[in-house]
Request: fold
Amino acid sequence: MSNQDFVDEAFYQFVQQFHTEEQKVLLAFYRELVGKRKIPYKIKDRSFSVNIQMCQGFAIDVEFQDVLIEDGRHPKEIFMENLRGERLDDGRYRMSFTNRLAASSEGQAPKESAFSFSSVRGGVHLWDYSVHTMKLENDTRDIPWYLIYGTLQAIQEKKNALGSSALNTQEEKALWIFRFLRPYLQLFLSPATKIGFGKSTVLYLSDEFDGALDHSLMQEASDFFASLGMKRLSDLFARCECTDKELIQELLYTMRSLKGNILFKTLKQLIDECGKQYQGLYECDKDMNRFRSYIREKVQKIFSDHGWKGTYPSYMLRLDAEFLEVSSVYKRQYAYLNEKTKFIYFDFIESVVDGQYHITPVTGMILPKNSNIDYRKCTSMDCFFFDGGRRNGAVIGDLTVSESMTVNTLREKMKQLSAVLDIQTK
Reply:
């Protein structure tokens, strides 16, 4: 996909008058906004600033300077269509468009709107991939794969918007894996897909498999799974078609089972490396940083007062297990007698949804059985992979906090979190 894709030829030629970085921003302005979404039409100090694209890992903003609205109409919001640009005789620039919102509100055909400006300033902001762009609900039981898929998709969008040159080596490797893993991740996350307690119980709609992997991609997938020690998956990718039922059931069940934790941790480690050279989003936004610092301080005190180990955003507590431990996983109950110990985890996932910064707690429990695993280094994410009833994870969407909340509401959320810890540690 080139920068010109989905951009009108006349507008593309208009953009060529600007410097390279400004060209990228103006093309993104057209590609992401025209005919797609409404935007605030706010002119402040004769500047018109627009957030063009906000995605996990990057954002594109533009500021038109020394702006004059030429048609006299200044609605609060606009939905641009038929965007055109021209250079004026006095050296200024003009953008003309029709505003769909004006037509719908006035019950008449769209009127021409226009504004002129002397210069344009654009910015591409890059940060790491720790802040997501999805709203987490209580029933997000496949959250590890939602987070992985969302991040890999964001890296792909970054490439589409900024070009391959904007990617580092780790991001390129992540997209190489995404090429053959994408259709299977989409199928796994589809609401129509059901995964029980055996490979034969994996049910899915074959027409929801959105991909056609050729022989070379299948071989790359085979090599990748071989590097993880997953021989059966490697063999299936080497000899099967991409839509083969046996392959799909094997892979989807593996992603749900304990072996899937190996794949998840491999991709998570790679994603962490992808963003290592960038700052965190909260380090670029002062308001967000203040809110995050406030929550971090409150959360740290609550967990310390309750005897938990760790620092924000990950906490762990080791407890003596009850004589009878009962775990409910995907509506199925498991009972364990006379277990010696259990580990409980809390992690906090950060996200930006509809322009608001959110922090959502995720919790999990493990009844350990494998002495080769250091359970002190596990997190809530490890608890979502099926291991009988020994692991169980949940998103606590009811305890999500956001920037838009009042101080009193935030205090109430912290009291509720403290009450949850009281119950878990009794």
